[in-house]
Amino acid sequence: MAYSEKVIEHYTNPRNVGSFAKGEDNVGTGIVGAPECGDVMKLQLKINPANGVIEDAKFKTFGCGSAIASSSYVTELVKGKHVDEAMAIKNTAIVQELNLPPVKIHCSVLAEDAIKAAITDWRKHQEPAVESADAVPARTAQEG
Amino acid sequence: MQAQEPRTLCTTCGAPLGAAIDCFATLGWPRRLAIDRAALERTYHELGRRMHPDRFVAAAPALRDASLRGTARLTQAYRTLGDPVSRGLYWLELHGRKLADNNKEVSPALAEMVFAVQEQLDDLRTVRSVARGGEAETPAGAAETAAIEAEMRTEVEERREELRGAIDAAGRELEANFADWDKAAAESPDGPHEAGGASAPGADARFAELKAILSKIAYLRTLIRDIDRALETAQAA
Predict the structure, then answer these.
(1) Comparing A77 with B7, which gets the higher pLDDT?
(2) How far is C-alpha A139 from the geometric centre of its chain's CA atoms?
(3) What is the DSSP letter of A125?
(4) Residue A34 lies in a domain
């Protein structure tokens, strides 16, 4: 199967790969997986607690080219967006941007799920009293 | 288990029919998910013997074809129902449900565990390429890298054992789910269901549980395959 040019571009030159330092504040982490292909995706969002705007995003994905491209694109897509706006992102936007074929649509669903998981994780850490929020470390894969 | 005459064979003359029927009907069994391996073997061999293509070499072409089709169906039913995982997947398929409908069946804990293992494998590959690349400046440095690699291999091997244990545990969950289906089919308010528990109360919850278990097993198997590959490459390099 041939990948689209945009998938290849993101795959060979992925944006925002990596993770934020452990214990860094205001980071929400989402780890999601797709059993049918074995892919797993970690998306981290750094969110300004004052206005709920996503200031930075990082990802690490083990999977096929489309999964890597989907998560790479998503890190660019969410930056500067309010969390509510990011929550509303649909996988179809990713499919359209990357010209994903039908067999790779689940990769875009995975990326959409990762955004939701990361924001949900961040919100969970926001709920405790503001004073103690700083003491809550970012969740990491190792703690899972 | 042998509740009815197998529709795989003609009820009057015993000739193979080669009909396009599901795996349970092929064996002449009601749709029950708890399957006794020995009974499956017996039925497979008995039916296989009765419609073996060798017996129809000189028969009419239609009968010969039926024997071939029937034998192929029988083999497929034997394989599909013989393995609990493929049996579960077939149960979903039989009811128009697919495992890959969405990713919601993977629990966050499982996804995190898979990610952690993939990172471990990534680290192993990195250390290996350093060790094999001769980047170490001193013999002592090279020995240290080799020691780190050996330690990582051991950790990954231990992880693989854990995962195998997790698959065994999931296999037991699968058996419990099968028992739930059969119980629902047998104790349905409108009498025992020949067609299984899919139309009995609580089917949606049982389907959801079945999907979750099968997803977990598929994911763990993929992960073990990745580990096997990483360890093999480590050995070969």
Answers:
(1) A77
(2) 14
(3) H
(4) yes
pLDDT digits (tens, 9 = 90+) for A124-134: 988 664 444 44
Smallest Cβ distance to B218: which of A31, A36, A141?
A36
Alpha carbons B41 and B82: distance in angstroms, whole number: 9
Exposure string for B103-124, b = 16+ CB within 10 A, e = fewer:
bebbebebbbbbbbbbbbbeeb
Q: What is the pLDDT of residues A15-74, one digit of tens each?
A: 999 999 877 889 999 999 987 778 899 999 999 999 999 999 999 999 989 999 999 999
Domain count, chain A: 1
Distance from B103 to chain A by nearest Cα, in Å? Answer: 5
Average of pLDDT values for B40-54?
95
Q: Which amino acid is at B132?
A: R
Strand segments, DSSP code E, in chain B are none
Residue with tokens 């330092």: A21
Does position A140 have pLDDT exceeding 60, yes or no?
A: no
CATH number for position A70: 3.90.1010.10
Please tell me the distance from the alpha carbon of residue A102 to that of residue A112, in angstroms, as a whole number.
16
Length of chain A: 144
C-alpha distance from residue B100 to each of A34, A36, B9, B214 (Å)? 8, 6, 35, 11
Instruction: State the smallest CA–CA distance between residue B13 and chain A in angstroms.
Output: 45
Q: Count of CB contacts below 8 A, A vs B?
A: 68
ipTM: 0.80
Place of tokens 């795996």: B23
Using the Cβ of B162 and the Cβ atoms of chain A, whether some distance falls under 8 Å is answered with: no
Residue A57's domain comprises: 5-125
